[in-house]
Amino acid sequence: MFLVVSDLRKRYGALVALDGVSFAVAEGEIFGLLGPNGAGKTTLLSILSCLLPAGGGEATLQGERLHPGNRAVRPLLGVVPQDLALYGDLTALENLQFFGELYGIREPDLSRRAHDILASVGLEDRANVAARTFSGGMKRRLNLGVALMHRPRLLLLDEPTVGVDPQSRNHLFEMVRQLNADGMTIVYTSHYMEEVQTLCKRIGIIDQGKLRACDTLPNLLRLQAGQIRLRLRELPAGLREKLAALPGTRLAGPPHEEAGLDGVAVLLTCDAVKATLMPLVRLLTDERIEPLALETEEPNLERVFLHLTGKALRD
Q1: What Å distances lie between residue 225 and 50, 135, 161, 220, 271, CA to CA?
Q2: Which domain range does residue 246 map to?
Q3: Number of separate domains in the chain
Q4: Could you tell me which of 49, 58, 214, 286 has the fewest CB atoms within 10 Å of its CB?
């Protein structure tokens, strides 16, 4: 494997930030990392970025250990932190040239590479404008450009679309897809479930320092059942048992009245929503029952996330 995280541990006094986290990322993969506030994501990314030593276990990239003392591995890494890493008084071009020089890029390659990056992030016409005047989306795009100057093998993205407009978000998505198509390995961290669900084939969910799940999206979705919500004028005798007898279907609690709505609400959970609908409709037809309402909900990443991490608010 390209990136290997093995039994990674870290604590700050009595606080356990990482508690035996292990996973691997293949070369050329986009790997999603999800977790609520305080889950350990920032600590994990700091260790992978060689900014923080692990307290136990290790992380390796192409067999090279990731830790602050290993400078040889740093050119393989590109890091886009959640907090913008830009100099506001420098122009977009000067920011790229400055960070490029830190990685040993020299002229004429330095200017050529900086202009190529400006074009790719859609800021070519703002090359000589101070970064502090940029909108949030423009700063995010420039922040990504800075991380790409030295052509890293692994790109770590920490909440790259926070506070950006839809156009900039779409541009960032397209860039991520293109970078991956060109062979770059990407670890993508976000609070936006739809982003991770759209971009990442495999996803890790971390909470309270532990990796709660790590799998492909289809396998993660199997952790939660689909739902069918029925609202009936009344619940005829025997119907409850017949609903529960439908293949792969369960009653989620007793039927009940809902405030402000007519009839009786019935919630069914099922292994496959589409496969359940036809026998359900057939049953209702045979019983001469016309529902007041029928709604379906397929499993999604947000429901899986809440199932694994809980619904309590996090600071």
Answers
A1: 40, 42, 30, 11, 5
A2: 226-298
A3: 2
A4: 286
